[in-house]
Fold:
Amino acid sequence: MSSSSMLHLLRLVEQDHIHITDANHVEQVLSNLVAAGKQKLRVISDFDQTLSRYAVDGVRCPMSHDVIAQSSLMSEQTRVKVKKVVDYYYPKEISLTIPMSEKVQLMVDYWTQIHDIFLASDLNQQDISSTIHSNSPPLREGYDAFMSALHQHDIPLLVFSAGLGDVIQEMFAKYSVVYPNCRVVSNFMKFDDAGKLVGFHDPLIHIFNKNKSVLPDESYFTEQRKRTNVILLGDSPGDLQMADGVPNVENVLKIGYLNAHLERLDLFTELYDIVLVEDETMDVVNSILQKIIDPSC
Structure:
């Protein structure tokens, strides 16, 4: 088998939107994943603009916080207030010059301000649920095959998100992909007995602390210790730490979606094994997953 045979077999070297800096490394990791099989595999994925789409017909899709923040549940004045917060903090989140030590506190401030706006908006659980079902963004093309295959072959999926867990779970229900092998670690809302939003569960999860420090308990990684191979899916540098805490890791294949701000391509190709530029599908992930499940295909 030649050094690039797996890459060619999966058509990872024939498409202009797929960027691989170290082909030999990716070839070796892919070969190891396939040789070890589905029994040793787990998948860890971001949600917003990784499992969900970034844009449809050139129009950017809302992220999980946006589903509520941009909805009719919020007054026009409140939507303007949210936009001001986003416009101030988002450029700092993706900045290539602000050091990480500063970004962490900025992201805590960012998410805290957004959550405080939600808490001041007299939201209730039933209205939130209805809004999610009517306004949630689409998932990436091929999401159903991806999540169904993981379920059918009992491969655990951890969805690790700095977004809103309530929105993510409602979206999975809407798109009929609620499966027992999938766990969501995210920011979840607290409601009182009357269904009013009264808070958010600790800890606060933001883009730069998505690691074992915010997991509810050790069992998220340790209960399946034999699954030492990981496919990690993300759309930002902060997502790379999502597999921190997986015991006895042998192989990690890091697949990054670069949805916009293409000036960050060099950074992404340095950090991720495979970078998918402006790709709204799960095609590459699904082809790799199917090869691991059935090496003969």
Q: What stands out?
A: Residues 100-119 form the longest helix (20 residues). The chain has two domains: 5-54+138-293, 59-135. The mean pLDDT is 93.
